[in-house]
Write a structure and sequence with these properties.
The complex is a heterotrimer.
Chain A: E1 6-17, E2 20-32, E3 37-41, H1 48-55, E4 64-73, E5 76-77, H2 83-89, E6 94-97, H3 101-104, H4 111-122, H5 127-140, H6 146-149, H7 159-171, E7 177-181, H8 189-206, E8 209-214, H9 217-223, E9 226-231, E10 234-240, H10 241-247, H11 251-258, H12 299-303, E11 309-312, E12 315-317
Parallel strand pairs in A: 3-8, 3-9, 6-7, 7-8
Antiparallel strand pairs in A: 1-2, 1-4, 4-5, 9-10, 10-12, 11-12
Helix pairs in contact in A: 4-5, 4-7, 5-7, 7-8
Chain B: H1 2-28, H2 34-39, H3 45-55, H4 61-73, E1 79-80, E2 85-86, H5 87-122, H6 127-140, H7 144-158, H8 174-208, H9 211-218, H10 223-261, H11 266-275, H12 279-307
Antiparallel strand pairs in B: 1-2
Helix pairs in contact in B: 1-12, 5-6, 5-8, 5-10, 6-8, 7-8, 7-10, 8-10, 9-10, 10-11, 10-12, 11-12
Chain C: H1 2-19, H2 24-30, H3 32-49, H4 51-54, H5 87-123, H6 125-139, H7 143-154, H8 158-186, H9 188-195, H10 200-211, H11 213-236, H12 248-257, H13 263-291
Helix pairs in contact in C: 2-13, 3-5, 3-13, 5-6, 5-8, 5-11, 6-8, 7-8, 8-11, 11-12, 11-13, 12-13
Amino acid sequence: MSEPILSVKDLQIEFKSGSIVTKAVNGVTFSLNENESLGIVGESGSGKSVTATSILRLIPNPPGKITGGEIIFKGKNLLTLSNREIREIRGNEISMIFQDPSTSLNPVFTVGNQIIESIRTHKAVSKKEARELAIKMLELVGIPAPEKRIDMYPHEFSGGMRQRVMIAIALSCDPKLLIADEPTTALDVTVQAQILNLMKELQAKLNMSIIMITHDLGVVWETCDKIIVMYAGRVVESGTVAELYKNSLHPYTWGLLDSQITESQNNLKPLATIPGSPPDLSFEVKGCPFVERCPYAQTVCFEKTPQLMEPTKGHAVACHFQTSDQKLERKEDAYFDGSTT
Amino acid sequence: MKGFLYKRILQLIPTLLIVAIIVFFITRMLPGDPAAVMLGPQASAEDIAAYSEKLGLNEPLHKQFFDYLINLATFDFGNSLTYNRPIMDLIIERFPNTIILAVSALLLAVMIGVPAGIIAARKQNTIIDYSVTTLSLIGVSMPIFWLGVMLVLYFSVNLGWFPATGMGSLEEGFGSFIRHLILPSVALATIPTAEFARIIRSSMLETISQDYIKTARSKGLKEFKVINKHAFKNALTPLLTVIGLQFSGLLGGAVLTETIFSWPGMGLLIVDAIEKRDFVVVQSTVIFIAVIYVVINLIVDILYKVVNPKVNLDSNSGGGK
Amino acid sequence: MNNVQGIEEARDIQYRKSKKEQSFIRKLLRNRFAALGLFVILLLTATAIFAPYFATHDPYEMDVTKTLLGPGEDGHILGTDSYGRDTFSRIVFGARISLLVGVAAVLFGAVLGSLLGLISGYFGGRTDAIIMRIIDGMMAFPFILLAIVLMTVLGQGLVNVIIAIGISNIPGFARVVRGQVLTVKESEFIEVTRSLGAKHGRILFKHVVPNSVAPLIVYATMSVAGAIISEASLSFLGLGVQPPTASWGSMLQEGKNFLVLSPELATFSGLVILITVLGINLFGDGLRDALDPKMKL
């Protein structure tokens, strides 16, 4: 395969609040090829959004700081670029869309103004040309009567339509990479599928890579080629979607899978929950970060932090047992203790 | 928008009516014969009788009130005996001077207060932020008549940089005009400057943490544009409200400032008229200022709507069309 | 009926508890600025109450041989005014006027304004419309101008200053209380009380009033600062308390006329106004943050 379009190596991010330092991201590594889509999955606080936001260096500093690692995009380390150089990449070669379209559009400017602004920041075109392009973009993302709606304010759009506008802004300069931070979480269930389909459709049409941040494995199965599972600021498992769907190895991934609502389930089984909560990252985590909540934990897990290793090519996991010979046996009812209803 | 305008202008009428009623009753509450009080102690009995007749004080109260309203509506405030001129002439002569002072103070306040607030918000919890916060707290607590006196003491009496009193006419040259304007403007601008800095700081802090600011950054906009276009326009709404409120403060503060600097505006006219016990002039100028204030608030309301499309003040037309 | 009362009270207590911060006092005093403000207020109050003990001279004793002395001359800490009266002692006694007018005028405005706001907010409809139009009309006058007009009608004097500034304070309080009443009125427990058959007056004074207290206290604190400035302004314009009563505003006015000969008189009389008002504002800010940081005042 050719050179990956984006590769993140050993990324370290800290948040500082007074004397408390929280290690939000700790040694995250992954890569992404052209036209590929990658899903980053995890609970809130797992560092998935921070990782994604750090690619464009949009983490507010202070309190956030990237303390180590590199982010290579098309051969350039984004972390060493000047402010001016990173600005030229933002919204141009790499775009981002966010969780809540009702707050991520500026309420006091028309949507046209906000799309045109993005176009004219990166392309030397006249106002008229930019406006025509903006109308084309609105049409592309499926907004009816774009010539009319371009002059409307965000509050005159529905939630799904606003997210379409966000996508239009993000794609207006033909980015090579689109980072979508929980793009459907704030939307109605019926609208979610529409937005995901639109993104898939546009990916094929526009030749771009996508990073999809989500806590919903269902979204990943439907839209992504590759997946990384994050827990407590670390990657605990990664591989292709096809591989992980069938042969996931990490107990945390199993927990996520069990707590999914699947069509076949039909309420026959109670929904699983992973007991407990992630560790406080402002303290040094000893041993495996998942140990407190892991039904398979043994003495070694409390003592040593497992490293991410590849037992089979293209499928990495950070678990002492799954990377050695003594594989774990996945238990059907590991996450169904009696107390859950 | 048109419907909103009509409705807001119609709403002015009851407010102005109340203003007129309040002033009417305050003047009728004057102890003793109103004509005697209005004319002051040096008036003769004939003067008082003639003035009573002229004011229609011998008419029944409702007729007096009705005539008073008609006079107000036609901007006929009558004549001042102490100044020997129509009161409207006095107002026309003095009002522009107050506006010059108020507008220059407002400009000064916006030019200093707004950037100070923005910078404080951008550098939150730094020494710059603390200085702006502390200075603005001192500013809002400032007795401006004292500040005015201190400015005169240091910059006129001790240093001799600026004249202590009066207004420079433009014929004497622009330099003299400005030199006369600086001290009173600074005194009058102090409180609004501090208020603006406080308001802008807190609303910028609120705006900067919004998602659309992240969106603006993710588009690759320059930080200057992110702050001054995307954040500032959203932070502007509370500022506009405060500008409206401060303008009433400015008109009130002008009374004190003009007295200290002998600035020939409405405030000095009122204080002067009070000293001469010319209550007709006091009554008319106060009504005039109230009307101006109400009109300014209307303008602020309209601007508010222009700046913030989400605000739907026009409840009749339903959603935005 | 006893039962109804019981439920009423339980609901009320619950509602108030959920709104109030328990560690309010600790929160307030941890704020260093608020503590500083409180110190200034306490110092001012002590000065006002024990003025004769603080003062070094009789504030009304004139001495034509010792006019406009500089600070420290002949045992006068801050010098003397044009009548030979001791400036420091007059400032000490001036604290009485400032504090008295500040508190009394705000009480006056708070009682009348709150009453209007309560009636307006609770009954709504036409009553509300009429009262609010009158309040709007009063608010069309710049604060100090309304006080000036009232003083010209009422004439000079301490009581009249309190009344004039008090009346000017009515619209503000009416608005704050009306807003609070509308918020409280919406809440569920009022509905419950009403459905249990409580009377208007009872609901107003047992439930709405206590729940409006927090914002009212903050607003009143800030208003005292405003009232002190207003009193000084009126006295500065010669419309305040009658001479020879020592008031910071009238001292400043006199000082203004002797700016060259004795700049101390104007400097110090104004400086105490600034420190007093700043102290009250600091305390008010802290009070608001401790009671409810989201309070919009």
